[in-house]
Amino acid sequence: MATVSKARSIRIPQSAPVPRYGRGMVRPSRPAPRELVDPWPTGDARDAAAAVAARLAVNLREAVAGRSTRAVAELTGVDRTTVAAILNGTTWPDLATVARLEHGLVVDLWPGGVAKGFGG
N or C, fewer C-beta in 10 Å, the chain? Predict the structure, then answer.
């Protein structure tokens, strides 16, 4: 029996090998950004990556400026559920997504220097 991946609609047999990370190790799962920043997104972050994700969410919230996630999706080509997940801190946005958001909203979202200055 095959499993269908919703993201790419590619059939992957259940017996397919588990993707490996590094020297034969399975890539460890990590908590969602909102689990590392309390309260999300303006609170204290427990690591540099979470601090960047939180600041990016704040910047995106400001750039959205009252528009619906559907309107942002139309402007940027980023699925509305992805926009909502970034705003809610339930996903780690990738660089392609950030670039599409910045291009469509005509704004800089990437929080430069946040990780460099992270002290926690």
Answer: N
pLDDT attached to residue 5: 41
Q: Could you report the per-residue pLDDT of 68-117, keeping only the tens digit for each?
A: 999 999 999 999 999 999 999 999 999 999 999 999 999 999 998 888 87
Average pLDDT of the residues of the chain: 86
pTM: 0.77
Q: Under 8 Å CB-to-CB from 57, ≥6 apart: which residues?
A: 33, 40, 41, 86, 87, 89
For the chain, the first-to-last Cα distance in angstroms comes to 46
Distance in angstroms (rounded) separating the CA atoms of residues 104 and 44: 30
Give residue for tokens 């780690």: 92
E-assigned strand segments in the chain? 2-4, 11-13, 37-38, 44-45
State which amino acid sits at residue 85: A
Nearest to 19 by CA among 28, 10, 30, 11: 28
Q: How many CA atoms lie within 13 A of 8 on its CB side?
A: 4
